[in-house]
Every structure is written in C-alpha cells, then in structure tokens.
Q: What sequence folds into this?
C-alpha cells in the first residue's frame, strides 16, 4: 500500500491503456504505482542533503517548495534544520509526477492547500486532477501524431539509403 496524496492506495484508478513496449515487460506504466526510492529501514527523518540524494531535486528547489506552500509541513530539528519524513518523500514523488504532467505550479500549490483542508475538498481535488488528466491525454495524442511523423521520415531516409542512385538525364 502506498501513500501518495495523504490517502492510502492499494489499486490505482485510471482507465488509460498505453501501448505496450518491449521495455515495459507487460507492465502498464499508467496503472503501476511508482517504485519507492530505497530508504534506510526503520528511519523516518532525513536531512535536506539526504532528500537531495533520494529525489534528485536540489536543496534550493526543496526550500522553494516549502516557501510557496507546496511543502509547508516540514519538521525542524532543535537547531532549525529541516527534517523530512517518509511521508514528505512520498509527497515529493507525487509532486514529481504532477510536474511531469505539466501541471502549473499554482495548481500544485492549490492541490496542496486543498489537501490540508481535509476531506471536504475531495471533489475539488478530483476535478483538478481530472482536468490535468485531460491535458495529459491531449498531449499524449499530440505526441503520438508527432511520433508518426518522425517514423515516416525515418522510414523515408532508411529507404532512400537503400534505393539505387538516381541519375537525371
């Protein structure tokens, strides 16, 4: 069971079925839960440098996320240093997925605000995610069209190299 947006997930909810690829090993990337980053067993407190190593984000980005309200709940040590929890790391995985969708930062911050407001915002959160999902589906269709053009050009050039030379008279 994975916690992504403050709720536990045992099965993903999506109906999109991407085209399988040889690299996917018959795993549907749209419905497969993200693999969690390996974390030390039994720990639930990480420094900013450890989170940088786990996530690939910069310390500047993590501080910015906190400043804009995307991660306002980061605990502090007695010396004032940030201490991230496993829940924070799960949230960062989810934020990373939202970034990949192209969701504007303002919408991500709005989602985080709604999450903090509690269960009464389920409908608004769902609407925000559904809108983003529609945008992603549109982008996927555009990318499929673009891929078809690239494939056509690649086939053309591959065929041109194997065709006998043409001489004009």
A:
């Amino acid at each position: 069971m994975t916690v992504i947006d403050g709720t536990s997930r045992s099965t993903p909810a999506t109906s999109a079925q991407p085209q399988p690829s040889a690299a996917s090993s018959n795993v549907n990337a749209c419905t497969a839960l993200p693999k969690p980053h390996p974390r030390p067993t039994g720990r639930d407190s990480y420094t900013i440098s450890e989170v940088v190593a786990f996530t690939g984000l910069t310390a500047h980005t993590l501080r910015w996320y906190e400043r804009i309200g995307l991660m306002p709940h980061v605990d502090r040590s007695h010396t004032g240093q940030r201490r991230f929890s496993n829940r924070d790391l799960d949230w960062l995985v989810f934020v990373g997925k939202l970034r990949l969708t192209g969701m504007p930062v303002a919408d991500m911050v709005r989602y985080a605000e709604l999450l903090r407001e509690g269960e009464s915002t389920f409908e608004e959160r769902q609407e925000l995610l559904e809108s983003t999902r529609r945008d992603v589906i549109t982008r996927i269709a555009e990318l499929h069209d673009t891929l078809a053009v690239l494939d056509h050009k690649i086939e053309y050039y591959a065929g041109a190299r194997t065709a006998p030379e043409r001489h004009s008279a």
